Amino acid sequence: MNEIENRKDLSESITEFNTEDLDGEIVGGISIYELTDKDGEIYRIIAEVGQPNQSPANYEFYFKNDSLTFAKIVEFNETGTDTILNSEYYYDGIELIKQIDKKKEKMDAKTVRQVSEFYLVYGKETTE
Predict the structure, then answer these.
(1) What is the largest CA-CA distance in the chain?
(2) Binned average pLDDT, 10 residues per bin, the chain of 128 residues
(3) If we measure between CA atoms, which residue out of 14, 63, 23, 65 comes closest to residue 43?
(4) pLDDT of the residue at 96
(5) pTM for the complete prediction?
(6) Alpha-carbon torsion (5, 86, 68, 45), positive or negative
(7) Rounded distance, CA 46 to CA 60, Å?
(8) Residue by residue, what is the 3-state secondary structure of 17-47?
(9) What gap in Å lies between CA 58 and CA 15, rounded to an integer?
(10) Sign of CA dihedral 17, 114, 78, 14
């Protein structure tokens, strides 16, 4: 992960979606940060999600050749002051190698992979 963060040939793009209430007030949204190379290959996606009536969450996914290698999922309590879920997932292909849960709550590794695939497909569509 550090080797990807330290690469100078990768560029980051940000896409933001706002959620508005009936009065037009912004009450939440999603920010997606994609780290890609000049050919559009995605190395990292970070999604910060804050929606009404949901706990704020940060999803961090690292890819190698479109295959998930690492994910970190952090969900916060409704006030955003403490984590209720804080887990790391290490993958080799579709196989989970290691899962580290720092809180009692955890997300199923298969669900994490599915969420990462959603963001990867979305990211590929935006880089084309």
Answers:
(1) 47
(2) 79 84 77 92 92 84 94 88 93 93 92 91 76
(3) 63
(4) 96
(5) 0.84
(6) negative
(7) 4
(8) EEEECCCCCEEEEEEEEEEECCCCCEEEEEE
(9) 15
(10) negative
